[in-house]
């Protein structure tokens, strides 16, 4: 598998070197006027000599560096904690053609770790500021920013890259990106064309924990293959909150979950808003009282807001470790000089330091990458609501707001769609109808669209008796 990728990139590089040689004859120069003596010595040590850890097929040459500097196009998704680190690492490793996509603007709370940003940049798009910083600091490097959602860019855009690196904090965005790269795969008589594979390097961090993984779409485990690894939100047991609190968090949860709905401090039906200081202040005061009752210390305003808004503190050093691991994988794949990570690295320094690597396996019936039509088993008397619940609650699907359509009596019919209010209203009554009442038949195909993927997913409805 790695050998295949290796030869793929070597072939791309060889073609590029021929082009460059021709260009040099025309231009009469190499075009690198911003280079200086010894600039890439650190990288050349890896690429221009053999070593005990090099890939078995590795041949030392100057081509790899030229490929990285001139040709290799990298896309970085996210210009936040991981993104800043990634851009710096990649640019200093010799990648000079980088695009970055991020939809966020800079907040003052980012400045402690997102080191490409300064106080004067608050309010400006992260992608723009990050690109400007790298471009002005690293001669010859060209970072092109896209202040956009990943969903606003199409497959023509994504297809231009050799490698894509994700530094995202959202599982939905990750799954969408995964789905996009899977949709770019070309199958010829069921055989995957390796030229259509764009490797995806995915980094993720949460507090002191992080992971880095290498995904070869269509060949190795994809994001959705391992969806069960993203567990639902961990909550404290209600009995602990209600009767035996031990942590300041338990006291805050008590005020948030039990006192707020009971005392209705801001009126009936007012939902607790984590961004409203008066709301947080109320929860904070109640939490303090609760904590005093049980001799618990550590309830602060800041912690209260953190618990209410479910904030997990970002740790700069975790971002640095994970981004470095991801950038190293980009370097290994782009240069073909070393064997890539196979394929999932876990990092945890909550207590001491712990790390290991394992090979995540492809799931035979992965809803995203398996090419196998998925069967859904329901009784004809099941209601459409049950189908909807299955799509959102199944650990392997975890959809957010699925839209279900089917062809009934030759016509395309929207059974339920949540994202457009008027259609939601019109289709809501369908949820309490049975599948039979909706005119659905055994072996019927259902098309489901969701924010977790750019592609519509097809399911086969199998009636159980
Ligand atoms: Zn998969």
UniProtKB/TrEMBL annotation:
PROSITE patterns membership: UBIQUITIN_ACTIVAT_2
A Pfam family per the record: ThiF
CDD domains given in the database record: Uba3_RUB
Reactions accelerated catalytically: ATP + [NEDD8 protein] + [E1 NEDD8-activating enzyme]-L-cysteine = AMP + diphosphate + [E1 NEDD8-activating enzyme]-S-[NEDD8 protein]-yl-L-cysteine
Pathway the protein takes part in: Protein modification; protein neddylation
E2 binding domain location: 376-464
Alphabetized UniProt keyword annotations: ATP-binding, Ligase, Nucleotide-binding, Ubl conjugation pathway
GO cellular component: cytoplasm; nucleus; protein-containing complex
EC number: 6.2.1.64
BP GO terms, sorted: protein neddylation
Root EC class: ligase
Active site: 239 (glycyl thioester intermediate)
GO molecular function, one term: ATP binding
Family: Belongs to the ubiquitin-activating E1 family. UBA3 subfamily.
Protein's name according to its UniProt entry: NEDD8-activating enzyme E1 catalytic subunit
